[in-house]
Amino acid sequence: MGDDLIHDQNAGIDRLLEIMRRLRDPDTGCPWDVEQTFQTIAPYTIEEAYEVADAIERQDWAELEGELGDLLLQSVYHTAIGEEAGHFSFQSVVTNISNKMVDRHPHVFGDASRDKSAEQQTRDWEAIKAAERAGKAQKGALDGVAMNLPALLRAVKLQKRAARVGFDWPETAQVIDKITEEAAELVEARDTMGHDEMVDEMGDLLFVVANLARHLGVEPEEALRRTNAKFTRRFNAVEQMLAKNGKRPEDSTLEEMDALWDAVKAQEKANPK
């Protein structure tokens, strides 16, 4: 039955679960797969999530299909390890998230009214999540924000939690003033203090910049990804323009490259996509 299932391309998730079971079999499975643990697989899980985001950013839907499969495999991997250790199973994980979605959407699956704004529904969602955290003995406002999130994303999540209990600047202008203050403190640390102090002040500045993004309704991860893509595109164009003249960046002056950079920017503005 196992081989029939493994080769049945219409078997869906059952096929994938059986493939993972066979890969993890201590006697007949793949030695590499057998050795893996939650800890060794976790970095791959994070990497696959970023590759999903990258495919979406590039609007490469064929690539996204493959990346979503890779990300699904990570969930199957973790649940297989969990089942072997007696912690949980794939089915219990599915049941858990299904229950959570039903509980968090009483306006869809219960008697609550759907006649609410998106903002009100978001507040209701956060109230339900807060009640869930209380049930897990998470008493502090910041409890439950994952430690291993990317630092920029975690900063925003921490700020959102603090804002819910009133610890937030009421006006965007105050956040901008704080950025000016933190930038001055960074300069002071650079000029008069050691490296550790400079790292601390840089962290403070980045934290406040993330807060400004939150106040403006901008996702800082998305904004930085866009800028990374823009920088890559423009620098590649500068390299190509230099190459036409038989030069490379390392053979050029900063002034030459700045002039080409400005030309690329002007061309992009004149011909927006």
TrEMBL record:
Protein name: Nucleoside triphosphate pyrophosphohydrolase
Family: Belongs to the nucleoside triphosphate pyrophosphohydrolase family.
Keywords carried by this UniProt record: Hydrolase
Transmembrane domains' residue ranges: none
Catalysed reaction, written as an equation: ATP + H2O = AMP + diphosphate + H(+)
InterPro entries listed in its UniProt record: MazG-like_dom, NTP-PPase_MazG-like_C, NTP-PPase_MazG-like_N, NTP_PyrPHydrolase_MazG
EC number: 3.6.1.8
Keyword Hydrolase belongs to the record: yes
Domain NTP pyrophosphohydrolase MazG-like positions: 36-109, 175-236
GO biological process: dATP catabolic process; dGTP catabolic process; dTTP catabolic process; dUTP catabolic process; response to stress; TTP catabolic process; UTP catabolic process
Molecular-function GO term, any one: ATP diphosphatase activity
Keyword Hydrolase recorded: yes
Any Pfam family hit: MazG
